[in-house]
Amino acid sequence: MEQAFGEPTRDQVTRTHLTEDIPNASKCTVIGGSGFLGQHMVEQLLARGYAVNVFDIRQGFDNPQVHFFLGDLCNQQDLYPALKGVSTVFHCASPPPSSNNKELFYRVNYIGTKNVIETCKEAGVQAVLDANDPERNFLTIAIRPHGIFGPKDPQLVPILIEAAKKGKMKFVIGNGENLVDFTFVENVVHGHILAAEHLSQDAAISGKAFHITNDEPIPFWTFLSRILTGLNYEAPKYHIPYWVAYYLALLLSLLVMVISPIICVQPTFTPMRVALAGTFHYYSCERAKQVMGYRPLVTMDDAIERTIQGFHHLRKVK
C-alpha cells in the first residue's frame, strides 16, 4: 500500500472469531503484503510468532516463512485460498493516494474491500463448518493512518528527492506553519496489531474506526525540510501565497483538460497537492489510546532520523 500525505486511509483488520479452532488463532493473512506497509506488517507479525500468508498482485520479496498467494483482490476465487484457515486478516491494499484514477480507487477500495469481507465470511464458515455464526462471530475494525513514512517507502522520500534534483523544491506554499500528521510505519503496524489482539466478541472496538498517528503534528514544510537537509539537499526558502499556488494549479489542470484529447499529460502540480501541502490536516488518536492502549513506539525525531538512514543511497554527495 502506497501512502503519501492525503486523507487518512482506511485499512481493515478483520477477525473471524474461531473459538473452536485454537491452532488457527495465530494464523493471519496480509492483503497487500508486498507493499510498503504490508512488508513492515509481515516482519512484525513473524517476529510475534504469527504464521503469515500474503495476498497481492505481485510477490515483492522472498521469505521462506511466508506463504504467498498472487491474484486479483476483486476475484473471490483468487482470494479465498489465502483466507481459508486464518483467524485474522489485515487489509492493507490500496492505490497510491496521489493517483488520479477514480475508477481504480473505486475498484480496489470499495469493490475490493467488499469482496474481502464477503470472502472472509465464506472462508470462516468453511474453516469451522457449522460452529461459526458469521453474524455473531465476524468482527471488523478500520484503522486510519495518515502520512505513512519510513524505510522502504517507495513514494514520499524518493519522489521528494527526485523533485529536489530537478530544482522543484525551492518554494514553500503558504506561510509554512500548517500542521500535518506524518506517521512512522512501525507505529502504524503497532496500531494494527494492537487492534487485532483487542478484537473479540465483546470488545468496544468492534465495528469502530480508529486514527493511528505519531501524535506529534508537525509543520508540513518543516518535515520535508528535515528530510531534505538530512540527505544533503537544500530546504525550500522562498514563499508563495497559498491562494496564488492553488489558482495556478487550477488553471494548469483546466489547460490539461482542454488539451487531453490531443496530448496526454500527467501534471504533478495539481490543486489537490497544493491543498495537501498548504493546509492543516491532523487527527486525534485519543480513541485508540483509551480503548486499545495505543502509544506511538517511535518518536517523530527518531522516525525522521531512521528514515534518513534508510535512504542513505539517495544522499547528495557534497
UniProtKB/TrEMBL annotation:
GO terms of molecular function: oxidoreductase activity, acting on the CH-OH group of donors, NAD or NADP as acceptor
Stretches that traverse the bilayer: 243-265
Family stated for the protein in its record: Belongs to the 3-beta-HSD family.
Any single biological process term in GO: steroid biosynthetic process
Domain of life: Eukaryota
Pfam family, one: 3Beta_HSD
Protein name, as recorded: Sterol-4-alpha-carboxylate 3-dehydrogenase, decarboxylating isoform X3
Annotated 3-beta hydroxysteroid dehydrogenase/isomerase domain residues: 126-237
UniProt cross-references to InterPro entries, sorted A to Z: 3Beta_OHSteriod_DH/Estase, Lipid_A_modif_metabolic_enz, NAD(P)-bd_dom_sf
